Amino acid sequence: MSPDHMQIARFANQLADIARDLARSHFRATTAFESKSDKSPVTIADRAIEDALRQAIEKAYPGHGIQGEERGVSNAGREMWVLDPIDGTLSFMMGMPTFGSLIAYAEDGAPVVGVVELPALKERLTGYDGATTFNGQPVRVSGCAALSEARLSTSGPDYFRDEDWARFDAASRQGAARRFGGECSAYALLACGYCDAVADGSMAPHDFMPLVPVIEGAGGVITDWQGRALTLDYSGAVLASSSRKLHDQLLRALDAGASPDRAAF
Where residue 10 sits, what CATH number does that domain have? Predict the structure, then answer.
């Protein structure tokens, strides 16, 4: 393990502590929300958490850049923190405990350390240097290698373009079971071995960058829908799987459902 990455991971967990306390203080107490320009909701908790995390990062690592869902990019550079203060704001607003706070540290655009914090459940996954822990204990993906046996999940059809939803719908019906909802908690369940694949059709870097070290550290695979690595430069469809064999089967199934003249991602 890299001592530097261990130190970064410890600090990322301190950030997750801040996010947990703030999220829990607002959860099921905050009902007001605003609609952003893209019509997605934002609450006082989203902004309070991101502001607190930014302040902590700026104090501890003043030379690092920050990219957050609510406040955008500041001090962009080789070393970047990527923040989603509340992933699953709709769930948070509706009193559902599956929302999370996502924290990533990236070098040269590639995610190196990732934290998935689930405040309402008091659960946390941390991934870095090829290992992932759940509340401090090592976890592994299921290792499922056959689509016909796979348990699949997604945040839901509202998060896909129509064509991409049709592709996922057809591919996922080849599995053993599928479940909608969960946002980042579905990826946490994948890392812990409780489901076998998760796909979403429209994700930004703050949505997926923290997931990459967590999924990969638990032995899983996570890419775009063409099998390419996820970096800060990408936005779009994401697929995570419990094994390379299952991942390749799903990529083929998704591709089989695409229209011949679709635009490249």
Answer: 3.30.540.10
